[in-house]
Amino acid sequence: MHPVVRPLFLMHPDGGLFERLRAAGSGLFRLTRVAGWAELAAELARAPGTAVSIVDPCDPARPGALAEELRALLARFPAATVIAALRVDPGSAAELRALFEWGVADVIALGREDTPAALARRVGAVQARTVHRLLKRALPRGVPSRARILLTTAAETVAAGGQAPELAAALGVNERTVPRWCRRADLPPPRRLLAWLRLLLAAELLDDPSRSVASIAEACGYASEVSLKAALRQFMGAPPRELRRRGAFDTAARAFAQELFELREAARAQGRPEKTWLN
After folding, report:
1. Alpha carbon distance 273, 275 (integer Å)
2. All domains of the chain, ordered by start, with CATH?
3. Whole-structure pTM value
4. pLDDT for 50 beyond 80
């Protein structure tokens, strides 16, 4: 499978860190440097849910203190994935505990874990956890591994703004093969599967009250706010305001799980074996 490119924002004064991340990229992420907390917040307001930010968590005006701006950012964007990059020593335990309590996803120890290879592994692992976390929340129990492979790759494709051709490329097959794989895995056809996963990403952001519907539409690859609203009505029969009231992600996840159940029951009714392979 080919890697899927996702956004990585860097807000850190260490110029060497930027260069090492750029060397680590190798197509795994799209690196953007931001100048401050306000600019980072503006980027996150437009970014897909699988974006990752690496920040300097320290307050330059208060040596030894953490930046309250980071705490505010994580409170404003509770679904954001943020990594703190700082010097770590035996006296850093209280700082690290506070960072994780605030909602930081991971910590990079500068000078020890910041080679290009180590950074690539760390960012890749955090990005993967973000997609896996969303799928774990959305999927019913007992989804076979063959279906999870397709679902994970499709979610990564959607997060990067891809469509059916990009999904096929990420799976390493031609476009004509993917519908057969989806059918054998009891999943919706590729375009509908991608539409569902894009809706799940959008629904997760809808549960963040700081996000406007227009910014969610942009972040999730919809042509406009109108397009997102139309998709929500088509798949879930409700406008954004109603879905926010009900719990947008939970509502979307239940509807998606119901469709997967119906597809599996239809396959059983046709006598299709429980175990099929992607070939």
Report:
1. 5
2. 6-132 (3.40.50.2300), 139-269 (1.10.10.60)
3. 0.72
4. no
